[in-house]
Amino acid sequence: MHGFILYDDMERALINSRPFQRLRRIKQLATTYLLYPGAVHTRFEHSLGVMDLATRIFDLLVLKHRAELEVALGLSDRADTKRLRRILRLAALLHDIGHAPFSHGPESLLPGGHEQMTKRLIEEGEIQQLVEDGFYQAGIKVKDILPVAIGPKESQKAGLELSAQSQFLTEIITGTFGADRIDYLLRDSLHTGVKYGQFDADRFIHTLAFIAHPETGDPMVALEKGGVHAAEGLLLARYFMFQQVYFHKVRRIYDHHLTQFVTELLEGKGFPVTDLNAYLLWDDALVEHELVEWGSAGRSRVARDILARNHYRVAYEVPLAELDEDLADWIGPIAKQLQREFGEDVWVDYDYKPFAPARELGMPVVDGKKRTSWEQESRLLKTLPPLGFARVYARNDKPLRKAVESRARELVGSSVKQSA
């Protein structure tokens, strides 16, 4: 997808490490392959792609804004710039190594989420040794990579210092228009065959720019005005991929069933996060092997149902017109009531998110010396509705589904009337 991806001997050592090679056995889109057969791509190739894209973005920004960047980032010479580029590449390469089997599918069983496991795998064991031994001459330590790899929010939770340099680098990787998002949209679109995920990534990357924050002087990634349409293409691609893939009703229920099975497999204890060697044994292959064993032997109803594609079906879906930002407040009690009445035979799934969260609107748009905002320059943001859904699933039994549908419709209707 990106053509040749180049790396040096030290980066090769990290790629060949056990934690990174494990990513070959972690699917990017969990159980989506049960719906889109081609979606068997992994975190391994995604991580290589993010490293390559992040490097391209960094190199272009340096090419266009070297003098301003050196001042804003406190770089004294070309060696400092080279070191920063190296940190970016390592962080991009390692940013996903903590993922549980099937990525986000059963992540609720991973205490602290995959970012905190990524942190542990970088600062302990084989990765830590490779970084400290291989990059010490370049003045790079694990503490330089960590905040860039796990991002601002998780760094704050972990008490890590996020310098202006780290903030700038992590924005290139995980920001609104970062390398991570660019890669997963293009890659997921390619492997699922959903063309809506395509956009002009080359045009977009070449219109990224750098500015200094008007008050703090800290470096910020900006967008040239000529790149607004390319950026809109990226946001539209993300919007449609959520509708067609990430929020798909069948994909969501299979992820739920998988989480149910892994919970059984772990005996309700969660993944073994205290022992890194034990954790690294957990991958898709292990889970799939146990799924077949347990399902074939009749040890697990949910495993048997997954193998037979006897997943729960949607009994009722809340109309889009009734979804709002308070969805969680009123659908949560309904979910509990349905579970009290129907037990494990029902599952309520819901999500609601604005098309572009407030933090994403803050990306500056530059036109020569003139500076505006992304929100001011794009009419698209004012016309596309938020992304959301609320679905009530029921066990694959027609009379049960009818009963669940009737009760769900009654509860939702009553709730909507009360809030009107």
Automatic annotation (TrEMBL):
InterPro entries xrefs: dGTPase-like, HD/PDEase_dom, HD_assoc_2, HD_domain
Sequence ranges assigned to domain HD in this UniProt record: 43-185
Domain of life assignment: Bacteria
Alphabetized PROSITE patterns for the sequence: HD (PS51831)
Coiled coil: none
Annotated TM spans: none
CDD domains from the UniProt entry: HDc (cd00077)
Pfam families documented for this protein: HD, HD_assoc_2
Protein's name in the database: HD domain-containing protein
Species in which this protein is naturally found: Geochorda subterranea
Organism taxonomic ancestry: Bacteria, Bacillati, Bacillota, Limnochordia, Limnochordales
